[in-house]
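Appendix B. Worked example

We walk through a single record from start to finish. Start with the input: the chain for CGNR zinc finger domain-containing protein, Streptomyces spirodelae, length 190.
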Amino acid sequence: MQINHDTRCALDQAVELLNTMADGDTPDTLVSVADLRAYVQQNDVSGVGDLTEDDLRAVREVRDRFAQVFAAEDSRTAAGLINALVAEAGTTPQLTDHDGYDWHVHYFAPDASLAQHLAADCGMALAFVLVSGERDRLRRCSAPDCRRAFIDLSRNRSRRYCDSRTCGNRLHVAAYRARRRESAEAGSSS
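Next comes the structure step. The output line below is what the pipeline stores for this chain.
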């Protein structure tokens, strides 16, 4: 799947936003305006002014809606969710070149709130994934104790874990140790 730089950034922003949600033992990490400001800085979200409690509430609502897109049973349901999200954001496509990047499209109005900005840009990026027939690339980690979101951009669509160095490696080590334990038990009983 080929995607341009801006679409990739928007997809990453959506995933990072989703991964701020509480999950099992992991607490919600988007609970204050300071957390929101940190998210904006970490993800290089452009054109963001002062942030307020209203921004935090609105971004958390957008986050919940992205979670619904990832959990959608089928493409028709995901499309309906994305269409509503983007329409409510007041999408205004505009060509722009900034921060050393060549011409690209921003889908949010210049005076958009942070929530509208994320809903429009990330919503359109998710729409591109859906339109290209790649909705199955919107995934949750397969590790039993991790449900972090990720987008599988591997060539063969084989990625199962949010991070192969943590979740994937941890499960492979556990499986290896279980095999060794079984082998040792089988050897001691003979």
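Two observations about the output. The longest helix spans residues 164-188. The first strand starts at residue 94 and ends at 96.
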